[in-house]
């Protein structure tokens, strides 16, 4: 599908950069898949030949939610155990194991310039890791030190809250793992990415603004492919709406956090479309019985107990379905931020490039 990227100039007066950048993602993701076809195919062949015993990810913030998505993909599609390598392990403690030799380290960053990520990636490379940079700026220091570079092709992102770069990163990781694993269903689904995300961008989730406008805290639930996007949604609610949101697995939430939810408390559910939906309906019935205000997107039979069901196309590959959910959520996040009197483009105390070591 060919589509024209939205820009801030095509939106109504007063629209935000966050909204414009999120709306541009479907066309950018479709274009990325075309630009990266040969590069990612070659990377997949190399990684299959490497046959590593495990893989690792390295990221911060929204990129760390993308790293969790990569972990899900690698473990379920390629059968490769994947660990999260904390940046401070390499940048401060220099405790990267010698067992990293010939192990892929997927370093994910929009800017490719965060000092702690650079130091940790450089330390891992010195110990034999194969550094793979999934990065928006292909001319960045992170790209320079990597053996394999997968550009996400999101273009400049001026809103502090990442949207299009996150979506493009999820698609780049899906493309990489599809080629790496040779998962037939995922490879077949990838060409539909632009269409699926365009439809998701058009889905109106703003009915959720009213029940969330005055909330002070909430849960965001996901599982399987939708758990990392639930984490990203919770992070965006904190960043752009000053709303304390915490993400949990719909399976794990019963182990303690559920006791915090009572009558009128909001719960946003990004329901998975695959086997991870097992038991979800019963969990939502439990929340509804407590009087919680459940807002959900997913298969109708799973999310029926919700007080508000958000529109989404459920007849898609479950991995694309999860990416589509965060695409739709960004429209809600932007509208909610404005309704709460916040500026989604410039959250307080945040910078585009976080400089820590």
Helix and strand arrangement:
Elements: H1 17-35, H2 37-50, E1 55-58, H3 61-78, E2 82-84, H4 87-91, E3 104-109, H5 115-126, E4 130-135, H6 141-145, E5 148-151, H7 164-181, H8 184-189, H9 193-202, H10 209-212, E6 217-222, H11 226-241, E7 244-249, E8 266-270, H12 280-289, E9 293-297, H13 300-303, E10 308-309, H14 318-339
Parallel strand pairs: 1-2, 1-3, 3-4, 4-5, 6-7, 6-8, 8-9, 9-10
What would you say this structure looks like, in words?
- There is one protein chain.
- β9, α13 and β10 form a beta-alpha-beta unit.
- The chain has 14 helices and ten strands.
Q: What is the tally of beta strands?
A: 10
Taken from the alpha-carbon principal axes, the silhouette is globular
Structural class: alpha/beta
SS element count, helices: 14
Biggest pleated-sheet summary: 5 strands, parallel
- What is the first-to-last residue Cα distance? 42 Å
Low-confidence stretches: 1-11
Strand order in the sheet with the most strands: 2-1-3-4-5
Query: What is the mean predicted local confidence, pLDDT?
Result: 91
Order of helices and strands: HHEHEHEHEHEHHHHEHEEHEHEH
- Helix coverage percent of residues? 40-55%
Radius of gyration from CA coordinates = 19 Å
Strand composition percent: 5-15%
How do you describe this structure in short?
By secondary structure, this protein is α/β, with parallel strands linked by helices. The chain has 14 helices and ten strands.
């Amino acid at each position: 599908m060919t589509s024209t990227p939205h820009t801030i100039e095509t939106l109504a007066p007063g629209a935000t950069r966050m909204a414009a950048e999120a709306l541009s993602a479907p066309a950018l993701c479709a274009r990325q898949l075309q630009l990266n076809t040969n590069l990612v195919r070659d990377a997949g062949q190399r990684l299959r030949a490497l046959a590593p015993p495990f893989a690792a990810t390295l990221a911060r913030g929204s990129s760390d939610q993308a790293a969790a998505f990569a972990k899900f993909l690698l473990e379920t599609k390629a059968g490769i155990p994947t660990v999260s390598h904390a940046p401070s392990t390499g940048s401060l403690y220099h405790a990267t194991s010698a067992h990293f030799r010939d192990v892929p380290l997927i370093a994910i960053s929009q800017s490719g310039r965060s000092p702690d990520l650079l130091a940790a990636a450089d330390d891992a490379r010195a110990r034999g890791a194969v550094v793979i940079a999934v990065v928006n700026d292909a001319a960045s220091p992170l790209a320079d030190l990597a053996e394999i570079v997968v550009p996400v092709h999101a273009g400049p992102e001026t809103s502090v809250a990442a949207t299009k770069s996150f979506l493009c990163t999820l698609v780049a990781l899906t493309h990489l793992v599809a080629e790496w694993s040779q998962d037939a269903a995922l490879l077949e689904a990838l060409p539909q990415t632009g269409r699926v995300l365009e439809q998701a961008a058009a889905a109106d989730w703003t009915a959720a603004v009213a029940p969330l406008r005055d909330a002070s805290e909430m849960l965001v639930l996901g599982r399987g492919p939708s758990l990392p996007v639930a984490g990203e949604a919770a992070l965006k609610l904190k960043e752009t709406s000053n709303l304390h949101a915490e993400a949990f697995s719909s399976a794990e939430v019963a182990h303690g956090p559920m006791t915090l939810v009572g009558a009128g408390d909001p719960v946003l559910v990004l329901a998975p479309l695959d086997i991870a939906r097992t038991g979800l309906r019963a969990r939502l019935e439990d929340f509804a019985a407590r009087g919680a205000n459940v807002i959900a997107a997913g298969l109708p039979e799973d999310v029926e107990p919700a007080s508000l069901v958000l529109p989404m196309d459920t007849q898609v590959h479950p991995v694309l379905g999860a990416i589509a959910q965060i695409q739709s959520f960004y429209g809600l996040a932007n509208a909610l931020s404005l309704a709460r009197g916040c500026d989604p483009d410039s959250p307080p105390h945040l910078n585009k490039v976080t400089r820590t070591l």
